[in-house]
User: What shape does this take?
Amino acid sequence: MQFSFKRYEKKYLVTHKQAAAVTAALLKYMDLDEYGTYWVQNIYMDTDNWDVINKSLEKPLYKEKMRLRCYGIPDETSNIFLELKKKFAGVVYKRRMAFSLEALKQPLREMLPKEDQQIAKELDFYLKGNAVDEKMFIAFKRTAYTGVVNPELRVTFDNDIRYRCYNLDFSNPEYGRQVLHENYQLMEIKTPISIPLWLSRALSENGIYRTSYSKYGTCFTDYCAQKGDVKLYA
Assistant: This one.
């Protein structure tokens, strides 16, 4: 299991027809993830004034955010990941540690191991310098593919993106307000190097172009519009 990532993440909003065409092309070079289609659940950390997401929406050269993440509906044996995701000049860096549901009953800093571990140090440093707490739940259904020759190449298709700012737990991923139109999927290409030629060709042939899309940013913007009294800084 990987706990440290450095890669490019390129995003595309695609129709179901476009997704099917790209999938047909990538199946010659990639395998379906062993888990098939599954829920990805997240709880994003932010300040009382939503400083983290507001700064992110300004599109700075460097940004970072912290979240809890799990796959599927967890039980006492499942891994819950505390992740710190950083982006600098288009490159994404991610650090994460795995914990149990039981461990999450503690404050975040208290559950970090005391041993001299680099990832734990980075997570602790972020928590020391940022007054963040659990603020928004975001879930989506994911289908993922992994490269056969290059397993670091991943292509994911996310559907049914939804959020809520209450009941911030991992027991019910289907509960929340949807933000992605039912006719579209969010496709992401994740790779430490350039996109392979065959995949670039598949994108071009199907009229698929990169877009700027943040799940947290999209959900927060929708939350502001719904609530009315919460204002974006920008």
User: Anything to note?
Assistant: The longest helix spans residues 215-227.
